[in-house]
Amino acid sequence: MSQMKIVLCPVDFSDLTRQELALASEVCEAFGAHLVMHHNLSAVGPGFTRAWEWHEVHRADDTSSPKAEERLRKILAELPRTFTAEASVSHGPIATIVLQLAEKLPADLLILGSHGWSTEDHASVTERLIERSPCPVLTIHEGADVTRFRLRAAEGGAAVPVLVATDLSESAQPAVEYAFELARKAPLRLHLLHVVPVSADTNAVKAAERSLHQLVPPDLAARTTCQVAHGDSIAEILSTSKRIEPAFLLMGEHARGFFRRFFTRNTAQELLHRAACPVWFVPLHR
């Protein structure tokens, strides 16, 4: 992350849009980035269980381009004047268009809200975009606490806590390096977390602790804490998050196959939908 210049934020005019824009505003104000909002007129509604909510938000009189543009102009007018912003409207496959736009800009960060898990009759657009995004993705799900997200020091100058989960693999290294780059540009206190199986012996734990400490550059040693936990990775990450109450959780890609994976697909899905704070995903090739 040499510089954060452009932030792309797709919006669907639901209640989640305000949370997405709160994240986007904080990022743009902290880094002086330019915000690009985008609304897609062809977004497909979710499955039956959430259909009532979707149709309430996307009423017939709001689905035309002029109506969408009018709503976007209103949102733009309400944004802080501390950064520049623009908006656009498209019609077509939402995931494909967002990915194309992210590459064309090019976006340095994609901010997405998640309405729920993938089901048999509805594939989560957020999950698909995380798998294929050419840039890091900052996500927020309904129910997560967006008020704790910040990239600037709180009152009194206290550093902002951030939880960085890593499996210490080579493919996870870019995410850790990205966290260090963020900490050099913002007043962050990093909490590096690695989870070992319950069966891990003392030697394995000590080796993991040494590996974690070796990752920390000297200039950030005073603002970085290392922890090795025992147990299930998802449970330990959520437990640690509850304890330290981070502004956000940052994690990276575990492996690349036919689809990219963050740790494992289940881990990414669980944290995306269960974390009490925003989750910042960093792709391997970022």
Describe the protein's architecture and organization.
With about 290 residues, the protein is of the alpha/beta class. It has 2 domains: about 140 residues, HUPs (Rossmann fold, 3-Layer(aba) Sandwich), CATH 3.40.50.620; about 130 residues, Rossmann fold, CATH 3.40.50.620. It has 9 helices and 12 strands. The strands form 2 sheets. Strands 3-2-1-4-5-12-9-6-7-8 form a 10-stranded mixed beta sheet, sandwiched between helices. A hairpin with a 3-residue loop joins strand 10 and strand 11. Helix 4 packs parallel to helix 5 and helix 8 packs parallel to helix 9. The longest helix has 16 residues. About 10% of the residues have low confidence.
